[in-house]
Amino acid sequence: MKIAISACGDTLSAKTHALFGRCDYFVIVDTETGESTALKNKSAEASTGAGPACAQELFNAGVTTVVSGKIGPNAYEALKAAGAGIFLAPPGITVQEALDRFKAGSLSEMQIQRF
Amino acid sequence: MIIAVASGKGGTGKTTVAVSLALSLNGVQFADCDVEEPNAAIFLQPTITEQIPVTLPVPEIDETKCSGCGKCTDLCAYNALIVLGTRVLVFPHMCHGCGGCTIICPERAITEKPRAIGMIEKGHALSIAFMQGTLNVGDPMATPIIKQLRKHLDRSKIVILDSPPGTSCPVIETVRESDFCILVTEPTPFGLHDLQLAVATVRELHVPFGVIINCAGIGDDAVENYCRRESIPLLMKIPWERRIAEGYSRGEPIMSVMPELKQAFINLHTTIAAASRSQSQTALKEP
Hints:
The complex is a heterodimer. By secondary structure, chain A is an alpha/beta fold. Chain A has a single domain, classed as Nucleotidyltransferase, domain 5 (2-Layer Sandwich). Helix content of chain A is 25%, strand content 23%. Chain B has 2 domains: 2-54 and 120-278, Rossmann fold, CATH 3.40.50; 55-116, 2-Layer Sandwich (Alpha-Beta Plaits). Chain B is 33% helix and 28% strand. Chain B is built from 11 helices and 11 strands. Chain B has helices spanning 14-24, 40-44, 71-75, 100-104, 143-150, 169-175, 189-204, 222-229, 242-249, 254-257, 262-278; strands at 2-6, 29-32, 47-61, 81-84, 87-90, 110-125, 128-135, 159-162, 180-185, 209-216, 234-239. A 9-stranded mixed sheet of chain B has the order 3-6-7-2-8-1-9-10-11, with helices on both faces. The radius of gyration of chain B is 22 Å and the shape is elongated. The two termini of chain B are 22 Å apart. Classes of the chains: A alpha/beta, B alpha/beta. Chain A binds chain B through residues 43, 46-50, 52-53, 55-56, 59, 74, 77-78, 81-82, and chain B through 73, 76-80, 82-85, 87, 89, 91, 94.
C-alpha cells in the first residue's frame, strides 16, 4: 500500500504540512517495501483546483491512502472518487511521526458532512 | 461615453459617487457591476421590468466514449476536471466556460450544458435606464455576469458603471474599454495603499482616470500629495459629514441630504468629458 503524506520537505524528517493541495511535497511511503520517495507538488501555486489536481497526481502514482492537514471539499471529493483513504494529521510533526501514528491507528479518518 | 467608478479599497464611496452622478445628469444608463453584492438599487429604487438568467457552458462527459487520455485536464488552466483512470470528474463551479475541453477531446466525449450562475435585471429609475447583475450566492464566477451586462450597454448614452472593489478580474472586466475611470478613495493610509494598486491597474488598461476623495477631513493629506506627485487629477472632494452617513444608512442618496452638491457632480461630468476627449491625463487641470 502506498501512503502519501503532505509535507514541507522531501524527506521522512520533513515537517508535515497544514494543507493538502498547497503543500510543498508529498512524501510517498510504500508500506510493503518501506521505501519512500518524494513528489514535488506542481499545483501548489495553481490559481484554482490545486486539491483535485493533487488527487489526480497521487492516483497516477498509485497512492491509496492520504495523510494530511486540512483537506478542502473539492480535494475530498476527488480523493473519495479515487477510492483513497483520507486521514488527518497535525501540521508540524515529522513525516515519520505521522507515518508511525497512522500505522498505530491513532489518526482519525476524515468525513465531510454534506449539507 | 462610458464612465467606470472604481476604487482599490472597498467601502470608499463608489456607489455613492456613481448614484450621485447618475442623479445629477439626465437620461443616463446605470449598470451596477458589483455583482457579488449589488447595492445601487437601494438608493435608486428602480422598477425592474426584465430578468435575464446568465449561464456558463460547463462540460459533461460521456463516459462510454471517454478514453481517459487526459487532454482535457492538461488543457484546463483552472483544474476544473481531473482524470482518474478512465473516469473524468468535473468540478462545474471551477469551470470558466472557455469550451477548450470540448474542442480538444479526440473522442468527442464532451458536450456542454448550461450552468446558471446569476441574473441580469433591467428597469428604470426616474430618467435612468437601470441595470444590475447578481451572482448566485456561493458562486465564484463574477466576471461572466459582468461580461453579459456589458453587452447591454447603450453607447449612445452616458453610461455609468458601478464597479466592484479591488483590482481583480471583475474590476478589470468592468473598467476595461471605459472612456474614463473615477477612482474613489478616502484620505487614510488604507485608502492610499489601495488607491496605488487601483492606479497601477487602470494605467495598465490605458483608461484615463482621476481621483475623488470621499470623507475629506478625516485622516491625512497623503492621498493629495500622492496625486500631485503622480500628476493625477483630483476631481472632487466629498466632505466628511455626519448627515451624509445618516442619509446613507436610510438608503438616501447624497443629493437628498446635500442638494448643493448636485452642481459639483454636473461639473464633474463636464471635467470628465473634456479629459476623456483629450485622452490624456496631463490635459486635466487640477481643481
